[in-house]
Write a structure and sequence with these properties.
3 helices, disordered N terminus, Gamma-B Crystallin, domain 1, alpha+beta, 4-stranded antiparallel beta sheet, disordered C terminus
């Protein structure tokens, strides 16, 4: 098997996944290309199934940062597996090589990252202020 026969389909899939509109809605966080050629978008708190009508997710491009919770089925019901959220930054591109995504679950529900107000205080300032009463918010994420 030639190297080009492996690389060209990968590049074609990435091109198709990146070609769609950046974000069709204010809550859209991911763009997914399925093996049947369908390009789909998912919003926060919507089930993102890894298989739709037999077509498997081949590529996913994150448009916004999220924290995702995996479910064992493609309806995103039942127990979360594992019971820990997975943070994904905007711009992350995931390729479903060897159907890896189905090893970890059948679908996911993702939420907007909700920690925008964490204060970032330089250590020097925190030490001067004694880590309390008077620590000033210098910046936030």
């Amino acid at each position: 098997m030639k190297f080009s026969s492996l690389v060209l389909p990968v590049l074609a899939g990435l091109g198709a996944c990146l070609a769609g509109p950046t974000s069709p809605g204010p809550n859209t966080y991911v763009r997914v290309l399925y093996t049947d050629g369908a390009l789909r978008y998912f919003d926060y708190e919507e089930c993102y199934p890894y298989t739709i009508n037999g077509a498997k997710a081949a590529w996913a491009v994150w448009l916004k940062s999220t924290t995702c919770y995996e479910y064992s089925n493609d309806q995103c019901t039942g127990a979360i597996t594992p019971p820990v959220g997975v943070p994904l930054p905007a711009g992350a591109t995931l390729v479903n090589v060897a159907d890896f995504v189905h090893i970890i679950g059948g679908g996911a529900i993702c939420y907007a990252n909700s920690l925008p107000g964490i204060p970032i205080v330089p250590l020097e300032q925190a030490l001067q202020d004694g880590f309390g009463g008077g620590v000033k918010l210098l910046a936030s994420i």
